[in-house]
Design brief:
Length: 114
C-alpha cells in the first residue's frame, strides 16, 4: 500500500496541475486505509477524485468513492448522480493512463457505488 501511495505522491509532484490530500482512516478498525483526495486542474476546469487505498487479502485495493466536477458543480458518490458517468470515463481515459505510464504501475480502480 505504501508503494502505491508513494507513486501517487510522485505523480502529483511532477504534474503541477495535480494536488493531493492524503489522510489515514480511523486506526480503530482492523485494517489500515488512506483517503486520497486528488484535485486535477486543466485550463479552467477542476475535477476532484476521492479515492480509498487499502490492503485486502494480501493485495492493495483502490476504490473510487466519489468524483466531482468542481467547475460545473456536478458529480457525486453514485453512478446515477449528474455527470458521474462522463467524469468516470474521463478518469479512465485521461487521468489513470497518465498515472500508470508515468509511474509504471497498473491500477484497477473499483467504483464503490457501481
Amino acid at each position: 500500500m505504501d508503494m502505491i501511495e508513494d507513486k501517487i505522491r510522485q505523480f502529483s509532484a511532477i504534474n503541477s496541475n495535480v494536488r493531493l490530500k492524503i489522510t489515514a482512516r480511523d486506526s480503530t478498525v482492523s485494517y489500515s486505509a488512506r483517503d486520497i483526495e486528488v484535485h486535477v486542474k486543466d485550463n479552467s476546469d477542476s475535477v476532484k477524485y476521492q479515492l480509498v487505498l487499502y490492503d485486502f487479502n494480501g493485495s492493495t485495493k483502490i476504490d473510487l468513492e466519489g468524483i466531482f466536477d468542481e467547475t460545473r458543480k456536478t458529480g457525486g458518490y453514485n453512478v446515477k448522480d449528474k455527470d458521474v458517468k462522463r467524469l468516470f470515463g474521463d478518469f479512465k481515459k485521461d487521468f489513470l493512463p497518465k498515472l500508470e505510464k508515468e509511474e509504471g504501475v497498473v491500477l484497477k480502480i473499483d467504483w464503490f457505488n457501481f
